[in-house]
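Hypothesis: this fold can be encoded by more than one sequence.
Test: take the structure tokens below, design a sequence, compare later.
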């Protein structure tokens, strides 16, 4: 019988050393030694599976990757220094000059920047569909299309895309279906079940969960991961053993942390729905969410991010942030500390209104990454900041 998620998170552990330690030690070593020339030859020829050099593999990164592979129901994986390193390296490994990508327009800002500013250097173009234009995807697919890419829930708009529907389109056209599963975590949603070939995470967010380290990971199909591994092995975007050690430890508590994050987030969302200065609230597990039914089908819980539109637009959004006392104004998410942000005056401030609206960022949109403080204290801070 295969083990449960929580058990994999804890018991999927590097073999004990001669010291019989209970918890996995930190393997701060750049390289590994060989007994003789033959062992070294076999290792470099990949005829013997073992650690060689920490840019390739290290016991700590392997433990972290093995856990995510088990949690996502994947075949293989590789850990990167950041989420963006995972995204860029996966695309760079799999694409050739002249290939084409179809992506949802609502993707993380740096991912969009990579599609628009860097991949075109290699003549790789991206065609976009909006979250409510899934029926247009097939029309965007060309002979040279290789990858279909989405995030769900989207950042920061919190839209939900139908994984099964899009997975079927990818399969029909023989495309590599890649899902950024960062907002959900494998505890809430496992895109491979719905047809994803690869799943990418920024481990910096809920996987770390305490705002301490950066990390990224790509898991999925073994053959594709082999390409990604070889690319990464030679170009060097690897996760550090220290970060892997921290992140593997964080995974041990992922299920309980995410349960509590989501419980708090639902309470915050419900509170916001009843506030007179709030125009609308977006949270995947509120019945008012436009894709509530899809969210319920593919997600176990609603996640820790709540978005809402404050009455009074840009000015009210800025005033709200200024009045916040306990919660943090910060660029991260998925931390134990609740973080509030106002994308149209900060992260997306340089985009035109039209470009912002394309990804669902209205002037008064506020994003809250609900943390693990007592929910009454989180709500009290939000409530006093909303009193305009
Ligand atoms: C959905 C999503 N994907 C990827 C990233 C990039 O991750 P990192 O900051 O670890 O490079 C982020 C960062 O906020 C994100 O929100």
């Amino acid at each position: 019988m295969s083990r449960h998620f929580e058990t994999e998170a804890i018991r999927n552990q590097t073999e004990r050393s001669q010291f019989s330690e209970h918890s996995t030690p930190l393997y701060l070593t750049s390289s590994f030694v060989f007994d003789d020339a033959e062992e070294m030859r076999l290792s470099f020829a990949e005829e013997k599976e073992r650690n060689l050099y920490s840019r390739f593999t290290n016991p700590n990164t392997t433990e972290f990757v093995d856990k995510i592979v088990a949690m996502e129901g994947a075949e293989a994986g590789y850990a990167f220094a950041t989420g963006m390193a995972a995204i860029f390296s996966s695309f760079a490994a799999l694409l050739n000059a002249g290939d084409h990508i179809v992506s949802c327009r609502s993707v993380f800002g740096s991912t969009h920047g990579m599609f628009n500013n860097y991949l075109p250097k290699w003549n790789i173009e991206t065609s976009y569909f909006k979250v409510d234009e899934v029926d247009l995807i097939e029309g965007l697919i060309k002979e040279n299309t290789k990858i279909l890419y989405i995030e769900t829930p989207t950042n920061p708009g919190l839209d939900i895309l139908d994984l099964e529907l899009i997975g079927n389109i990818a399969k029909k056209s023989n495309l590599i279906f890649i899902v950024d599963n960062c907002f959900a975590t494998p505890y809430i949603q496992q895109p491979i079940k719905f047809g994803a070939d690869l799943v990418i995470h920024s481990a910096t967010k809920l996987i770390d969960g305490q705002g301490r380290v950066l990390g990224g990971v790509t898991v999925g199909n073994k053959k594709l991961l082999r390409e990604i591994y070889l690319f990464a092995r030679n170009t060097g975007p690897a996760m550090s053993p220290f970060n892997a050690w921290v992140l593997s430890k964080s995974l041990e508590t992922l299920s309980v942390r995410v349960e509590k994050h989501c419980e708090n987030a639902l309470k915050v969302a419900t509170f916001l729905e009843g506030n007179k200065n709030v125009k609308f609230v977006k949270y995947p597990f509120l019945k008012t969410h436009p894709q509530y039914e899809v969210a319920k089908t593919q997600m176990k819980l609603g996640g820790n991010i709540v978005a809402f539109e404050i009455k009074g637009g840009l000015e009210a959004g800025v005033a709200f942030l200024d009045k916040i006392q306990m919660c943090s104004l910060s660029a991260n998410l998925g931390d134990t500390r609740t973080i509030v942000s106002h994308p149209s005056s900060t992260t997306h401030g340089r985009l035109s209104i039209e470009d912002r609206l394309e990804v669902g960022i209205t002037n008064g949109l506020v994003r809250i990454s609900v943390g693990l403080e007592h929910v009454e204290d989180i709500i009290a801070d939000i409530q006093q900041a909303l009193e305009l």
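DSSP finds 15 helices and twelve strands in the chain. Residues 254-386 form a domain with the Aspartate Aminotransferase, domain 1 fold (CATH 3.90.1150.10).
Hypothesis status: open.
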